[in-house]
Amino acid sequence: xVGLADPPDFxxxxxxxxxxxxxxxxxxxxxxxxxxxxxxxxPQHFINADPIQTNLAATxxxxxxxxxxxxILMPSKDAWGxxxxxxxxxxxxxxxxxxxxxxxxxxxxxxxLLTLRLKEIGARTVYLNERLTLGLAPEGxxxxxxQRGRWCLGFMQILRGRxxxxxxxxQLDVIDRLSLIExxxxxxxxxxxxxxxxxxxxxxxxxxxxxVQADLxxxxxxxxxxxxxxxxxxxxxxxxxxxxxxxxxAQYIALPAVLKAVATGLLKPHGHKFKxxxxxxxxxxxxxxxxxxxxxxxALAITLAGIxxxxxxxxxxxxxxxxxxxxAWSLYNAIILTIVCLVSxxxxxxxxxxxxxxxxxxxxxxxxxxxxxxxxxxSITGAxxxxxxxxxxxxxxxxxxxxxxxxxxxxxxxxxxxAIRFDETLNTRVDLIRAFYSGDYVTAFTGIRAAPLGKxxxxxxxx
Length: 463
What we know:
Blueprint: E1 10-13, E2 19-20, H1 24-29, E3 37-41, E4 45-46, H2 51-55, H3 66-79, E5 90-93, H4 94-99, H5 110-120, E6 124-127, E7 133-135, H6 141-160, H7 174-207, H8 216-237, H9 246-267, E8 287-288, H10 290-313, H11 317-322, H12 324-344, E9 345-346, E10 356-366, E11 369-378, E12 382-386, E13 396-401, E14 404-414, E15 417-422, H13 426-436, H14 450-462
Parallel strand pairs: 3-6, 4-7
Antiparallel strand pairs: 1-5, 2-7, 3-5, 8-9, 10-11, 10-13, 11-12, 12-15, 13-14, 14-15
């Protein structure tokens, strides 16, 4: 672009599966009035459920994993001046990009590194917390894990590079270096602690090895109040986007890939290819993520074996008297590991396109006669309507969606109405995309619903 006769003032980055809402540029460009702004990053919102939501049948009661990051963590980082570019859904000042020699290639997370290089020349990244783009979350567990591993590997490459927090060549401020150290601790200590969390209680129950010098009374007196306070505080701070236990599930799923990426990135930071997150594949059959299921199925078996050995097969006074902490810990681990194993068994997705519930009147034209029917749900390929007097199957109709005239065919009767399939011509397809990606058909997440979430998990276990 540098060689163009009229180079752009700004460029926008969008992944192939992301669509900007009509107001995306108008809203993002406002922040560039400040000449010190090099990047405006907006949150990523998704029209589909991620694998954790889908595999637990909890799409309506549990948020996608990125909601805590984009709704809570990124605004907090922005308040401290350490927000960073996440690639898609961003706008970049072109002159600032040229000054640093274009997009950096030292890391597979070039977006994060872009923010650091721009910061070194005085160009900040700011965060605009408005839903302005819609895209696809990873649809399968393998893709989800690959994505997390790539993010971790890219950060480790940054850590080892000239823009790392301890690099003498870096021109970053203290706050930026501290933010990088905090991110490093998040990628490393969080996941290492998870490993010890699985191993420690089983070591005591199976071999009598004490890693924690505490009994059940001390657990109830010291740790339980802390844990409850932490859980309530996180629920309040995250505004219903985080819940103890379920956060552990997400971390355990990514754990093997993350620890591998940490070791690889620190020991051999160069020579790694960018792994694309595949999207839009066929998901109509059940798929088991065997590597994950083997790891956590084995961990679950060892945990249950430890409980059985210590309290049933080899019960002793010392274990019964002082093993309460290990028992409580192991029971918690067993619950979390069971959920992780359930997530490892991917449920089939019968529909080719995401479908959203609606409740609104839609104007129809059926053979020149107008009519109004109640829209129940829709996707980019079809819709379902509620009616006591549905039109006959096979008849061509026209309906008005978001002020756009869309051709369709009535394909079947339903228990409470009828269903239509939208015409597949180019003009109709364009109208549907514009209507569908207006943002009105994707409901914003409002908060975790603990009781329905628990019910959904129980239904997956026993149903």
